[in-house]
UniProtKB/TrEMBL annotation:
Gene Ontology CC terms: endospore-forming forespore
Domain of life: Bacteria
Transmembrane intervals: none
GO biological process terms on file: asexual sporulation; sporulation resulting in formation of a cellular spore
Signal peptide: none
Name the record gives this protein: Small, acid-soluble spore protein H
Intracellular or extracellular location(s): Spore core
Family, as annotated: Belongs to the SspH family.
Xref: InterPro entries: SASP_SspH
Inducing or repressing factors: Expressed only in the forespore compartment of sporulating cells.
Broad class of the protein's primary localization: other
Length: 62
């Protein structure tokens, strides 16, 4: 994913499915200076981690 699309997803009110390493995540915050994002897993666990935006994948809607 690129920074432009990540910004669109973060600012959207739609529920857009994004994955990191095959796991569904929420994007919490974008860090433009180093092309990273703070994310957490969808579900009850709220543990946050930073990952490279290029490693995020938007899943196709079925």
């Amino acid at each position: 994913m690129d920074m432009k699309r990540a910004k669109q997803i973060v600012s959207s009110s739609a529920d857009i499915d994004v994955t990191f390493a095959g796991t569904s995540i929420w994007i919490d915050e974008l860090h433009e200076e180093n092309e990273m994002a703070t994310v957490h897993l969808r579900g009850p666990l709220e543990e946050r981690t930073q990952v490279a935006i290029k490693d995020l994948k938007e899943e196709e809607t079925r």
